Amino acid sequence: MVFYFHGSLLNLADLASDDIGCLLRIIEKGMPCYRCEIAMQHVLDFDFEKACSISLSNLNVYACLVCGKYYQGRGLNSHAYTHSLEAGHHVYINLQTEKVYCLPDGYEINDPSLDDIRHVLNPRFAREQVQHLDENRQWSRALDGSNYLPGMVGLNNIKETDFVNVTIQSLMRVTPLRNFFLIPENYQHSKSPLVHRFGELTRKIWHARNFKGQVSPHEFLQAVMKASNKRFQIGVQSDPVEFMSWLLNTLHAELKSKKTKRSIIHDCFQGELEVVKEIHKKVLTEKKENSDEHNNAVVAEGGAANDDVVRETSKVKFLMLGLDLPPPPLFKDAMEKNIIPQVRLFVMLDCLASAK
């Protein structure tokens, strides 16, 4: 817990018992010549939309470090200024610039003890730190004393948004994708709010200095609803496969290079499938008039029985590939539950190689 006292911030853990008692007596007397403040870190939540709680504007918004509410502006007659007078809360942080001010006096507070709050507001990673992220896995402790593992934190289910949460948790396991979005400079050229909200959510999930052991994807969901024209929205259940397909294609469209038409999405997920079709020569002759230039027609080798058959080979690129799962068993286990069959991914891929 941090106190703001007469122009400086004091950490309660660094004060002697006599100093704490003196400070509490000053606060209790309510002396008007001092600005005594408590920065309540446990009430700060930067996961929600950064908009003023009164005007609902997202321009020049400040967070009160005492109650955690958002207010617009810090000038005379602004909502933050009025709140500082009515509630007696005097320390505010600008959610965009990360600067901290004392209101209603209006001067900036420069103190290293506020860095923890800044890191939670806008998590940041160095490139060297990202490269060794998997090698230095350590448990972190939240303000409530609970332990959490960065990258494995829970996501709040706001209202039937579990299809989004399971998709995000899956994508967070893809190391190249994670490393790309942990560095905002990699996608600063993009003007898409969806790209930046996804990057911000990635940094929060992998941040080791969070105040809580869970993250709320509220801002990311707001960007999803806007980008999808409410095709995916809070309160409406959707198919996670459909959502993942839409998300990957949308992120690729916003990130792809104008020259190469490639992006981190295609680098991570795009595959190539070779399709071989056996067709009769008569059908092939009719099809050649409208055939694709990339198709290769190879005459099948063999006896006279194959003289009228040709093989047409083509390569198809894909982001998602449907595979057949094994059928569930008829019998139940000792716990009267159906046994969930387990099969290796490569076994299911072998079925494609043998399919005709």
Automatic annotation (TrEMBL):
Chain ranges of the USP domain: 153-356
UniProt KW Protease keyword: no
Gene Ontology terms for molecular function: cysteine-type deubiquitinase activity; zinc ion binding
Positions of the UBP-type domain: 31-128
Gene3D superfamilies noted in UniProt: Cysteine proteinases, Zinc/RING finger domain, C3HC4 (zinc finger)
GO annotation (BP), single: protein deubiquitination
PROSITE patterns, A to Z: USP_3, ZF_UBP
Keyword Transport: no
InterPro entries reported for this sequence: Papain-like_cys_pep_sf, Peptidase_C19_UCH, Ub_carboxyl-term_hydrolase, USP, Znf_RING/FYVE/PHD, Znf_UBP
Keyword terms: Metal-binding, Zinc, Zinc-finger
Record-linked PANTHER family: U4_U6.U5 TRI-SNRNP-ASSOCIATED PROTEIN 2 (PTHR21646:SF16), UBIQUITIN CARBOXYL-TERMINAL HYDROLASE (PTHR21646)
Protein name (database record): U4/U6.U5 tri-snRNP-associated protein 2-like isoform X2
